[in-house]
């Protein structure tokens, strides 16, 4: 399977037609069609459904599209890293992160590095731990910033000396808005919008199992989320109360939402992680040095 042909396939998937893709690639239509047919023959799968006016992907084609995008991204990242060698420090640093107030500390380090090396660029990918670690494992990210708990067996890490506080986001017309803190009795029977940390798989390590106690199995979880912006939209719509971290949603006086911390207090720590034995680009290596200088023991 040639890298060149994968690019052809992705162009067809994007354009939705052989004609449009051929024009974009500066190829003749018969040449492009032949390359795609040979790709299907090589993989032993039908990848494209050729309609009268539009090309669509088969389920197998969708799988290849996802893998081809990852391969192209990896090749481009590798090319950029080698291009930056023996030059003024430049290049791209790829960071995946969950939503956390601690990003302000990482942003300060990013700014410091950019002041010293203006040619360095940062690319931030937001997602939950599964999203970030999947891309880390595939080499598509240099670093991940993850909310604990996280399995660190495959990674090197530095713990950030910062704790995020858990609480509940609610509408300003909620009957709980007059409370300064939220207890288990306040929310155990109310509709909850739950984060990944509240799933059965992670609840013990994150402290939720102890916090909710016997009521955990009977919680009325009506929706789940992995990015708090979406959870806030659901709260505004009246779907329920979102259990989330503080300072991620606008709850100022002019906002329609408010935040109340859990009581007893529940906190989560954070780790910066990267693959063991990873070979860093010059830019990523300097970034890691700055991370060590700020947070290392």
CATH-wise, what's the superfamily of the largest domain?
A: Periplasmic binding protein-like II
Give the structural class: alpha/beta
Tally of structural domains: 3
CATH architecture of the largest domain: 3-Layer(aba) Sandwich
User: Can you tell me the CATH class of the largest domain?
Assistant: Alpha Beta
| Mean pLDDT score | 88
Key terms for this structure?
single chain; 297 residues; alpha/beta; Arc Repressor Mutant, subunit A; D-Maltodextrin-Binding Protein, domain 2; 3 domains; two-stranded antiparallel sheet; 11 helices; 11 strands; globular
Put the structure in a nutshell.
The protein is an alpha/beta fold. It folds into 3 domains: 3-81, Winged helix-like DNA-binding domain superfamily/Winged helix DNA-binding domain (Arc Repressor Mutant, subunit A); 89-161 and 270-295, Periplasmic binding protein-like II (D-Maltodextrin-Binding Protein, domain 2, 3-Layer(aba) Sandwich), CATH 3.40.190; 163-268, 3-Layer(aba) Sandwich (D-Maltodextrin-Binding Protein, domain 2). Helices cover 41% and strands 23% of the residues.
């Amino acid at each position: 399977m040639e890298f060149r042909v994968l690019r052809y396939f992705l162009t067809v998937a994007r354009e939705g037609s052989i004609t449009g893709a051929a024009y974009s690639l500066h190829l003749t239509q018969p040449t492009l069609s032949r390359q795609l047919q040979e790709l299907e023959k090589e993989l032993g799968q039908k990848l494209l459904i050729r309609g009268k006016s539009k090309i669509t992907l088969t389920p197998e084609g969708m799988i290849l599209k996802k893998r081809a995008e990852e391969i192209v991204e990896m090749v481009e990242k590798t090319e950029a890293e080698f291009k930056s060698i023996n030059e003024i420090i430049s290049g791209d640093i790829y960071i995946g992160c969950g939503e956390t107030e601690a990003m302000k500390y990482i942003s300060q380090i990013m700014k410091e590095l950019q002041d010293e090396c203006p040619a360095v660029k940062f690319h931030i990918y937001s997602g939950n731990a599964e999203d970030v670690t999947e891309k880390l494992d595939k080499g598509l990210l240099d670093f991940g910033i993850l909310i604990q708990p996280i399995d660190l067996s495959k990674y090197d890490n530095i713990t950030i000396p910062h704790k995020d506080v858990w609480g509940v986001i609610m509408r300003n017309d909620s009957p709980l808005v007059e409370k300064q803190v939220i207890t288990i009795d306040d929310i155990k029977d109310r509709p909850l919008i739950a984060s990944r940390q509240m799933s059965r798989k992670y609840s013990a390590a994150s402290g939720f199992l102890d916090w909710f106690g016997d009521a955990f199995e009977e919680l009325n979880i009506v929706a789940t989320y992995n990015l708090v912006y979406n959870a806030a939209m659901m709260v505004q719509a009246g779907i329920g109360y979102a259990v989330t971290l503080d300072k991620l949603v606008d709850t100022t006086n002019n906002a329609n939402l408010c935040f109340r911390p859990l009581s007893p207090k529940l906190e989560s720590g954070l780790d910066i992680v990267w693959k063991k034995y990873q070979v860093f680009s010059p830019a990523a290596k300097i970034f890691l040095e700055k991370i060590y200088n700020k947070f290392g023991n």
